[in-house]
Each structure stands twice: as structure tokens, then as C-alpha cells.
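Below is our example:
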Amino acid sequence: MSLQIRVWDLPTRLFHWLLAAGVAGALTSGWIGGNWMVWHGRLGLAIAGLLAFRLAWGLCGSTYVRFAQLRQLPRALPAYLRGEWHGAGHNPLGWLSVLAMLAALSFQVVSGLLGSDDIAFVGPLSRLVDGATSEWLTGLHRRAVWLVLALIGLHLAALLFYRLARGENLVPAMLSGRRRVADAAARPASGGGPLALLLALAVAGAALWAADGGWIAAPPAAAQSAPAW
């Protein structure tokens, strides 16, 4: 017996699709380069704010998006691999993929903010590190793109697997927030009210302000020597 319940709250769904659009735009603009690097930087800042929101929402959001769900992972993962796991939210492998994606994108954001190639892009926080470190982070940022692409590929492959092997289309669930589950004990998501949303938005706004680097003092102007007559 299966039932359909609300699993994903609206803020989580908006986060998911905004992050997907932001990452797609950042990958495309970074690949094209040139003048598009301005938009690459802007999208990186937007992704920073989104990631901060998700981290805060994982603490105060609704049932199935809270990181408290991870406490069940050591027991749930073996059960899932044996085909004995039943639940309403992310399955254990899904949670691992979420963590991997959040970690990979967080690294890309931090390395991009601190990175600089002194040509097309200068990260807003690059003044916090020396030139050699900034250049090194820029190299890592470029190489880690392949990790992000691999994780995206795994995500799409998982969606295809669920559609073909299990007959479940997960895309509508991330649009409507409702999903059909086999666990009779599953309950609709709860929590994540207006105050929690305001807190998460405040965290996202603070992260966006910090990432933009406006709080960093400008370097002192170089002293100009008097002309010799």
C-alpha cells in the first residue's frame, strides 16, 4: 500500500531549481569565458547565497530536509543496500549525493571567491590571500568543474534509474512537493515555518554580503613621487 504525502516544502523546491539554473549558468559562462566572466562571478555569488540558505534550512527547515536525518544514515544505508529501507525523503544514497554536491559547490564558491587569473576574473575575496595562493585556487577551481559535472551526471542517472527501473518520476515531486511513498508510517513534512524561513534568508543575505567582499578595506593608494625638474 502506498500513499501520497507532502515531502518537499516550497523553499526547498525553489532552492533546488534556482541552484540548478545558477550552476548551469555558471558552467556555461565559465566555459565561454571573456566578457561572460562578469556573469560567472555574479552567478557564483548567487550560488554562495543559495548554499548558505540550504545549510541554514537544513537546521531549521521541514522534516525531510533537516540534516538531523543524517543520524539515521549508519543504520539506513545497509538496510537500503539490502532492499529493506522505506522512507519518504531522500534515501541514504540520495543523502550522500546531496552532501557531495553541497561540498563540491561550496569548494567551487570558495575557490572562485579567492581565485584570480589577473586577466578575465578577479575574485571579490582574492585580496585575502597572496597572489600565488589565488592562482593555485584558480587552477583547482577549473579542475574541480569535472567533479561537479560528474555529480550532475550521477544525479541525472539516478533520476533515469528511478523512472525506468522503479516506475517513479521524481521530477514532478520536486515541482509539487508531493511524493508517493510505500511506508505506511510516513507522515507529511512539518516545521520550517515563517520564522525559520526568515532566519535562513537572513543567513543567505549575510553570506552574500560577505562573499561580495565589500567589507574588505581597499588597498592603500600607491604614493606618487614628485617629478624631478
In short: DSSP finds seven helices and two strands in the chain. The chain has a mean pLDDT of 91. Residues 131-165 form the longest helix (35 residues). The two ends are 94 Å apart (CA to CA).
